[in-house]
Specification:
The chain has about 600 residues and is mostly beta strands. The chain has 3 helices and 45 strands. The termini are far apart. This is Putative galactose oxidase.
Amino acid sequence: MSPLQKVLLILTLLFLVYSVDAKRKRYMKSPRVARIPFSIFGAYDQQQKNPYKGIKNPDFETDFKGEWEVINTDSGVSAMQITLMPTNKIIVYDATVYRTSRLRYPEGVPCVPYIDPNSKQQLEDCFAHAMEYNIQTNQVRPLKVTVDPWCSSGGLAPDGTLISSGGWNDGSKSLRFIRDSCPNCDFTESIDALQEPRWYGTQQILANGEFIIIGGRRAFSYEFIPKEGQKSTKAYFFPFLYETSDLDENNLYPFTHLMPDENVFVFTNNRSLLLNPNTNKIVRTFPVLTGGSRNYPASGSSALLPIRLDDDNATSLETIKVEVLICGGNSPDAFITAEGQKVYLPALQDCGRMVITDPKPVWDTETMPSRRTMGDALNLPDGQILLINGAQKGTAGWWDAEEPNFEPALYNPDKPKGQRFTVLNPSPIARMYHSTSALLPSGKIWVAGSNTHNTYKDVDKFPTETRVEAFYPPYLDPNLDQNRPQILQDSSDKNLRYKARFEIHFSIPKGGQITRDDIKISIYAPPFTTHGFSMNQRLVVLNSGNVAQAIKGIYKVGSMAPRFPGVAPPGYYILFVVHRGVPSQGMWVNIQNAA
């Protein structure tokens, strides 16, 4: 090598060293999360499961048993039926049959004319039976429904529209639509849009984003919700609903859950099956859940356990595990005993749990801390189930229950049997028939309603409730805040597509080394809740990649949207980052329609 070549080689090496060092220093100084010089994916090579596994750290522990706060002393409308909208408003309505509430239409809004069934005279109803509740300000805005939505069903469509179906009397075949996308949006109503009356029916979203409505009083059939302005063309006879109806019915508001293979799990009374909504065929039946009746008016509750796409075995449609939990209810004769004799039988105190996707499914039962009927079962972002509201004796119906169940119970499905329940701090307010609850993006639980009467009563053993409470679950213990993630929404992906990767950026006040096992990304489908059942509710834990730290306390994680719309139908979800059992505040995301 000549002297000139040696000089050129040395200069080249010096230039390369300087360039690498300069780039390293620029990266160290930059706060921009996007400049992470190593892969955050790699978990998606099916031949190489979990390529990066850090030390498995336990969830953070807390002795906090929850806290209650009254956040509105008179919302005006008792919350019989509710849905959380993507605009952070809750749509609330009860029934026009009361012809009264504690909220009047504002000046300039016309009252609703109606014919009094007793006097046969035309009167005017100037009370609001629906409202929009702002969860950020706790203020309400009256809404108008003209045909009765009493004991109806509903669901959030992929575009964010609340579609409500059925009800009573003039509302039994009606559909209601509200988009909540403008300051003065209100319901539009389609009269006689359904083939059969749907009073106490269940509305279930399907994998294509459309809805099926199943059952209702003396409606042993199902049909598909038409598009706005159109009418349903056919009701399909469903003998299963007739077969599961007994003297007290006990098969109303069927528990339904969409499965990954796009079939629908249907549970009524104490029996269940899998229905293919495309072929209208019964795919399979399941064992009887013994112990009593579970559906209205016995009124137990049901929820799917979290669908774990982060499980190494959940690599195909056939290997995704789906497990259902059904809790509480009462004996088959509880309603007629309460109605006829005013004797209130003890509610059931058991939960049944079954893997729907198991080749040979069986029910596994366990005992709750207390008896419960008319309670809600809510999925929480940390993967636990919250049992809240209800009574310990009696059933659903006017004046048909006693002994409110003031104490929520937390169910941890991952703990050994016998150790799964934790009793939480009680509410001071009875939440019985026609009470509701909802998980909010903050992680708090919105709790409202309770009206055991055929009108609004101010003075009674169980007065009509229009107070609204917030319940703080154990994961909102202030001592956990230093470990609580905060999603950086401006730099995180909010529009997801099936089978596509996306990124979430977040911070943690305490900072430190975070491994992949420390973080879970979950998405929650906000339900339509009424009469102890949260329709279309589900929590899906996504498959995520490695966690990268850009600068101290700032992290980036890649995740994969669900591969199948049967796992998570198109529409709006609340996404949470969960750090060793401590969830962030949620961020609204939208999964685009598969088409």
